[in-house]
C-alpha cells in the first residue's frame, strides 16, 4: 500500500532557513523509502534564481518520485519563471499505478501576492483529472500550497484561496481522498465528508508559532486504515489522525 512523505515551506534563502534541519529530514525520508514525496510550496524565500539554484540539489537528493508545487514566496520577483526553468511544471500529475495512486498538483500562487487562487482554467483541469482517476479507481491526492480550510492557531485569516469555496465544491464532487497544503507553518488535519485535509508545518524554517517545531508529515495508507504522522525536528513523532480506509479496494 502507498506510503507518502510531505514536506513544505523550506524557505531556502531566508535568514530563518536551517540547512541542517532540511538535511536531516531528507535523510530520514530516504531511510523510510516512501513511494512518493510531495513538496507543497515555498521552497524559496524570495523566488530569486539563486535561491532556486540552491534548493535544486536538496530536492535532487530525495530518492523517491517527487512532485513539487509552488508557494506564494516562490512566485515573488518573477519566481514563477524561475520555477518553470529549474523545477519544471508549476502544476501537473504524478501517477503510481503500482500502488493505485494519483497526485494532482496545483499552482495556487499569484505573482508577488501572498493570497492564493486556482482560477477557472486550472479548476476545470483538476476536475477532469479527478474524474479520470475515479474511473481508473485510483486513490486521489490533491497537492497545493495555500490551505482551503482555515488552520487553527494561525491568527487572523488573510491568505486562504480567494476561490476556496469553488475549489472545495469541486473537491467534494470529485471525491478527492487527500488534500495536502502548507503555507501556515502549522500542522493540522481536518476531515470533511470523505476527504481529509492535511496542512504541513515548515520543514526547515524557524518561523514557528508558540512551541511548534520544524516538521514534516508521513502518510501510511493501509488496507484497513490511514495514519498521518507528524515527524518533528527533535526526533519525536505524533499521530495527527488515524481513521478507517474506506477508499481503496472498492
From TrEMBL:
InterPro entries the UniProt entry points to: Calcineurin-like_PHP, CNP_phosphodiesterase-III, Metallo-depent_PP-like
One Pfam family per UniProt: Metallophos
Record-annotated Calcineurin-like phosphoesterase domain positions: 4-187
Molecular function GO terms recorded: hydrolase activity; metal ion binding
Transferase listed as a keyword: no
Keywords, sorted A to Z: Hydrolase, Iron, Metal-binding
Top-level division of the source organism's lineage: Archaea
Family: Belongs to the cyclic nucleotide phosphodiesterase class-III family.
Name of the protein: Metallophosphoesterase
Organism expressing this protein natively: Methanobacterium lacus (strain AL-21)
Amino acid at each position: 500500500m502507498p506510503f507518502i512523505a510531505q514536506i513544505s515551506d523550506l524557505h531556502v534563502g531566508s535568514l530563518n532557513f536551517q540547512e541542517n534541519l532540511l538535511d536531516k529530514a531528507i535523510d530520514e525520508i530516504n531511510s523510510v523509502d516512501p513511494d512518493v514525496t510531495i513538496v507543497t510550496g515555498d521552497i524559496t524565500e524570495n523566488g530569486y534564481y539563486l535561491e532556486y539554484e540552491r534548493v535544486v540539489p536538496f530536492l535532487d537528493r530525495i530518492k523517491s518520485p517527487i512532485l513539487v508545487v509552488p508557494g506564494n514566496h516562490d512566485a515573488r520577483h518573477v519566481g514563477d519563471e524561475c520555477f518553470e526553468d529549474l523545477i519544471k511544471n508549476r502544476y501537473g500529475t504524478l501517477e503510481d499505478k503500482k500502488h493505485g495512486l494519483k497526485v494532482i498538483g496545483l499552482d495556487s500562487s499569484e505573482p508577488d501576492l501572498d493570497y492564493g487562487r486556482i482560477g477557472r482554467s486550472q479548476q476545470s483541469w483538476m476536475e477532469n483529472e479527478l474524474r479520470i482517476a475515479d474511473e481508473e479507481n485510483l486513490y486521489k491526492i490533491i497537492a497545493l500550497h495555500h490551505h482551503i480550510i482555515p488552520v487553527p492557531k494561525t491568527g487572523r485569516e488573510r491568505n486562504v484561496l480567494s476561490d476556496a469555496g469553488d475549489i472545495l465544491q469541486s473537491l467534494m464532487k470529485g471525491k478527492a481522498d487527500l488534500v495536502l497544503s502548507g503555507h501556515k507553518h502549522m500542522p493540522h488535519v481536518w476531515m470533511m465528508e470523505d476527504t481529509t485535509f492535511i496542512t504541513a508545518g515548515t520543514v526547515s524554517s524557524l518561523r514557528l508559532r508558540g512551541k511548534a517545531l520544524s516538521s514534516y508529515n508521513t502518510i501510511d495508507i493501509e488496507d484497513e486504515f490511514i495514519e498521518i504522522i507528524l515527524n518533528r525536528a527533535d526526533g519525536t513523532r505524533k499521530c495527527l489522525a488515524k481513521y478507517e480506509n474506506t477508499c481503496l479496494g472498492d
